[in-house]
Design brief:
The chain has about 160 residues and is an alpha+beta fold. About 55% of the residues lie in helices and about 10% in strands. The protein has helices at about 15-30, 35-45, 60-65, 70-80, 85-90, 95-110, 130-160; strands spanning about 50, 85, 115-120, 120-125.
Length: about 160
């Protein structure tokens, strides 16, 4: 292996510029993972706030499975009116934080919660759009029932 060439230090560069250069060089050389890169960017305050939302392939079945767990329903009620940190949500339960984190992951992947990072905290809030497909699914049953009721009422009216 050849040794890397020595770089001359730029006397006018600030510490932040030197750190950024080293960071770019180490990532470009494949020395660190993309995840580590994003953590470094977040630590340096260079990453914009990200908002995690559901996958575009979320199905009604995933939403129903997410809602099947009573603790997840309680989580949705907690964050229904305001955005909360994961730790604040976990304080309302007697389970472990990792258990609550798993519930939060399921709700986020089902599209029912959105996650926003603020520093080292993750803030969660309800995504009303996540309930859209579920509502459409349930409305289809309601519409069928109303159509049957209307037909039955019309037949009853004709008989009289």
């Amino acid at each position: 292996m050849r040794p890397e060439p020595q770089r001359r230090r730029d006397p006018t560069a600030t510490n932040a510029e030197v750190a950024q250069r080293r960071f770019r060089e180490s990532f470009a050389g494949g020395k660190i993972s993309a995840r580590r890169q994003s953590h470094r960017l977040a630590a340096e305050g260079q990453r914009a706030e990200s908002l995690k939302v559901r996958s575009p392939h979320t199905t009604v079945e995933q939403v129903l499975k997410a809602l099947a767990e009573p603790q997840r329903l309680t989580i949705l009620r907690l964050v229904g009116s305001r955005e909360l940190r994961a730790g604040d949500i976990a304080r309302h339960f007697r389970t472990t934080r990792s258990g609550i984190s798993q519930h939060l992951r399921v709700l986020t992947s089902a599209g029912l919660l959105s996650q926003r990072r603020q520093g080292t905290s993750r803030l969660y809030r309800v995504r009303q759009e996540g309930f859209g497909e579920l509502r459409a699914f349930l409305d289809s049953f309601w519409e069928q029932r109303l159509a049957r009721l209307k037909t039955a009422a019309e037949e009853d009216a004709r008989k009289r």
